[in-house]
Specification:
Adenine-n6-DNA-methyltransferase TaqI, Chain A, domain 2; globular; 6-stranded mixed β-sheet; 4-stranded antiparallel β-sheet
Amino acid sequence: MIKGLEWKKISELVDIFNNIRVPLSSKERENLNKMFPYYGAQGIVDYVDDFLFDGEYLLVAEDGENLRSNNQNICNLVKGKFWVNNHAHILKANDDNITKYLFYNFNRIKFDSYVTGSAQPKLNKENLLNIKTCVHSKVDQQKITSVLSALDDKIELNNRINSELEAMAKLLYEYWFVQFDFPYDLRQSKPADETSKPQDIKPYKSSGGKMIWNKDLNREIPEGWGSGVASNLFDFNPSLGIPKGAGAKYLDMHSIPQSGFMTLEPQIKEFAGGVKFQNGDVVVARITPCLENGKTALITQLEENEIGFGSTEFIVIRGKSSQLSGFASFLARSESFRNFAISNMTGTSGRKRVDANTLKNYSLPIPDDMILSKFEGITAEIFNTQTNNVKQNQELSSLRDWLLPMLMNGQISVMDAEERVSEELGMVAEGERGRYEKK
């Protein structure tokens, strides 16, 4: 045993609160004031109007199938007010330990070997509490938590920035292309540009901009806009070439987010088939339930002109004559486009798909070129910042994942770990300053 470490059962480290958890049916969760997260085994599944817990707790998945999956969060750190169903154990460090330290510690445990039952495999309470793990003194727990938290705090900040940037861009898309309140120069009677004076720029429709009835769309659209289908603006599954057997960056379905646009880091894989894409392309899942769950992404983590590939269950969308990454991204996540795609799925139950040729025929207003160009300029800056933040997080996560077992096993001192983290965060800050100065 390494000095300063001690083997203990989980029952000696935590208090458990399973007796307080209460599952709610989907009908019971139908409330208007959805303020508090409702947690299941792997994270938030809904929001409700009341809470059971308030504070910092650990949620450990109970369902055996989840514990045996490599792509699931087994142990989650939860803060604030929340509700929990009966699919997760609720733990909190006792007075001799620190909850966040135990979060780091427990995520190294292979819980699947403690699962029992065949028909409904479970990690029951008794088995969980009898698991042994090697822990530090409370003083050292605090030091280790501080080191690892410095990385996690930066990762969390980057994620929060990305969410806020996306919300801003989505709001802009809604204003300009759904409500038709794009910036309009009333004095010059044209979309606002660099010659427009601030006092003359107003939102088009709400300021009385002329709307014309379009019989093809069966709705009013701004004067000067056209109507058409998605294939007027976009190519679907554009032709690209990767030699069979060549190594290329690959994205599977798990790599594509259900919200947001940033993918996980691509992996290198031999090409044997699948859709191909480049930076700036948008990919949409075409199969149930991934389409209904919102699997959509913007490709940003390839090199210039590099070709990557992904699942055959993706549809790739690319602007025809110009880069339309921003417009394509938010169109693909729009309620209208998604409802059209879902309502046109075909196939047997559980294996339904939408075809790319179907999406080509999605009807939409064709915006003014100047408005599209302006929107692309704004969203390009946003996507560039988000991509840099994602790459930062990948580097920070790699360092954290390397440090975690080293610290837990006593193979690296806290002082040395602090130095590594300080150096990494310093390099991140320097890179951010460099990007800011270029702007």
